[in-house]
Amino acid sequence: MTSLGCEDSASLRAPPRGACGALLALAGLLLACGAPPPPARAPDAPPAGWSHWGGDAGGTRFSPLDEITPANVGALERAWTFRTGDWDPSDAQRTSFQATPVLRGDTLYFCSPSNLVFALDAETGAQRWRFDPHSDGGEYDRVCRGVTLWEDPAAEPGSACAVRVFTATNDARLLAIDAENGSPCAGFGSRGEIDLEAGLGAALPGDLRVTSPPTALGDVVAVGSLIADNRRVDMPGGVVRGFDARTGALRWAFDPAPPSAPPAPPAADGSAQFHRGTPNAWGVFSADTARDLLFVPTGNPSNDFYRGEARGEIDYYGSSVVALRGASGEVVWRFQTVHHDLWDYDVGAQPTLLELELRGARVPAVAVSTKAGHVFLLRRETGTALFPVEERAVPQSDAPGERTAPTQPFPSFPPPLHPHGVRADDLFGFTPWDRAQCASELAELRNEGAFTPPSSRGSLQFPGVAGGVNWGGAAHDPARGLLFLAQSRIALTQRLVPREELTAAPRTRDRWTVPMEGAPFALEQRVFVSPFGVPCTRPPWFELLAIDLHSGAVAWRAPLGTTRGSVPWPFWLPLAPPGMGGPLATRSGLVFIGAALDGYLRAFDAASGAELWRSHLPAGAHANPMTYRVRPGGRQFVVIAAGGHTSLPSARGDYLFAYALP
To answer: What is the DSSP string of 477-492?
Structure first.
């Protein structure tokens, strides 16, 4: 256990700006170091847990705890630090530490990028057990966002595997582990595991991975998969399966082929076979246990940026939220956020289950946040929109053989959150020269809004493939009626390259080529940056925002992050470079978030968006934070993983940090 001094955190009332801001930040730091201790915590303050990756089954990322408040958050200190050992600075392996722990009793459970599973004492950070599944992620990015807890109501208390930890791996296995001692549950599948490639037909290394935690609903554990983007047309299908949580027997399978598709042929060995190239479900699911509903966010079919007429309606379930019956896998409803998605605008964010007050009645709803910068509010039982959604005409493809959807859905409440398209006065540069270079490049591109299709001429994509809102998702404060989101604002250029013109091009940080085998084109993508490597669009490039669910308006926006870690001091500017991760909200009126490229964990005032506190971490905190109190009268802890992200230039590591008041 380590505790760090005041130089590692600061109490702030607004983001520092310029020399005056630096002096104010220093003054705030001195005040924080010399501040009196916070009031004594109530001896009967109730415990509050974090039982699911998103806080609860509905993914609200909200805690009823209120010990840490806007008034005393400046006194937060690091309570303990745990290191997983799952990182070697001399190893070139691409890893992202994106895990959010879950809590049961006084034990935290989480996974590391290589699928190691840990159980820690939640108050001290001491390790209780460690499980190594010997996952082979190959040369591909290793990610594990979390694990899932399930308690068997029919088991004798204290019996083996009465409480299970479910996790899925980078080499496509579903595992069941005894929560008490970290041993495999021998009666589940084959010695505690299930091969998720079974029945999917031919697959190459890296085609199929699982990066998000499974979802338990009743006595079923459901799991989707990440199908690698843009490799080839004939990829394994994005099937979602429900397994018996006790035995591992397959209970149902949702094959996301269009309803009109003929049955898929069986595999050569006679086992189940699913349609190939269908949309996958790589994000985190939500569950409504009372209604036996599973809310599945989906991505795109293969290939993302060109599918052509020959692909037909393969994307019927793409870029959607699909509600499944938990016991049977039956499709209850589908809502598509992007039609014939040619932009990789997956629904990566976990759907958020909440209640809205409409005409004096409380309506069960689901909020769907998207990479396109849209939030759709739907009726939970039917998937119908609670507020008007307009189908607007959008630009059409000029690529031979491609079919573009004539319209796309735009929400009215809240209206789109992200700018659509880039105008000349939206351009940014540190000098007139680099801004002019951006303007010259923009003039050569198709630039007709968020749904400008890829073309051989070159097109601007804004929002880019990272969003908008990505897998970090939203946090909902029910008392204040606010929904908090982090979204990126980075544009890309993309060009369809005829296959006969394709040459091997090295991938760099801002330019890469994706093969899209089986299509007549490959795709060249590039971050829209100036010759100085700075985004051509105006900052902020990453922001935290709050939506007022009473009015549909944006209550506030706050730039998220500085250029620390990207450029040397003294050029640490509040320009908010792109990041990745999501927020946590508490009843006391705080929003905690890491996510930014500069490596800080921050606390914002939920009412105003003012930054109140931050603590610098030795590695990028691109995971969602969580909070809990283990016992009556105990301390409230805020916990976040810090280990960097493969696609962002943030520092790497293997840290789990816990903060609490003195």
So the answer is: ETTTTEEEEEEE---E
Region 131-153 average pLDDT: 90
Give the span between the Cα atoms of 113 and 117, in whole angstroms.
Answer: 10
Strand partners, 485: 474, 545
Beta strands 583-586 and 62-63 are: parallel
C-beta separation of 28 from 80 below 8 A:
no
| Residue of 566, 564, 620 lying closest to 25 (CA atoms) | 564
CA-angle at 624, arms to 619 and 625, nearest 5°? 85
Calculate the CA 381 to chain-centre distance: 24
Amino acid identity, position 240: V
Residue with tokens 């629904």: 347
Among 344, 434, 477, 598, the active-site one is 344
d(CA 197, CA 174) in angstroms, rounded, equals: 10
66 vs 270, residue with greater confidence: 66
Rounded Cα–Cα distance for residues 417 and 552 (Å):
11
Q: Which long-range contacts (CB under 8 A, 24 or more apart) does 598-603 make?
A: 598/561, 598/562, 598/563, 598/564, 598/565, 598/566, 598/572, 599/564, 599/565, 599/642, 599/650, 599/651, 600/561, 601/625, 601/638, 601/640, 601/657, 601/659, 602/560, 603/68, 603/73, 603/76
The pLDDT, as a whole number, for residue 243 is 98
pLDDT in tens, 155-193: 999 999 999 999 999 999 999 999 999 999 999 999 999
> In whole angstroms, what is the distance from residue 638 CA to residue 625 CA?
7
Between strands 102-104 and 107-111, the pairing is: antiparallel
Give the C-alpha separation, 317 to 258, whole Å.
Answer: 7
Average pLDDT over residues 348-362: 95
> Chain-wide mean pLDDT for the chain?
90
pTM above 0.85, yes or no: yes
Q: Is 168 exposed, middle or buried, given 0-12, 13-18 or 19+ CB atoms closer than 10 A?
A: buried
Give the neighbor-by-neighbor strand order of the sheet with 148-151: 148-151, 163-168, 173-178, 193-195
Check if the beta carbon of residue 279 is closer than 8 Å to that of residue 238.
yes
432 CB-contact burial (10 Å; exposed 0-12 / middle 13-18 / buried 19+): exposed
Q: Is residue 195 annotated as part of the catalytic site, yes or no?
A: no
pLDDT digits (tens, 9 = 90+) for 426-449: 999 999 999 999 999 999 999 998
Give the chain's end-to-end CA distance (angstroms, integer): 14
One-character DSSP codes across 6-30: GGGEEE-SS---HHHHHHHHHHHHH
For residue 13, pLDDT beyond 70: no
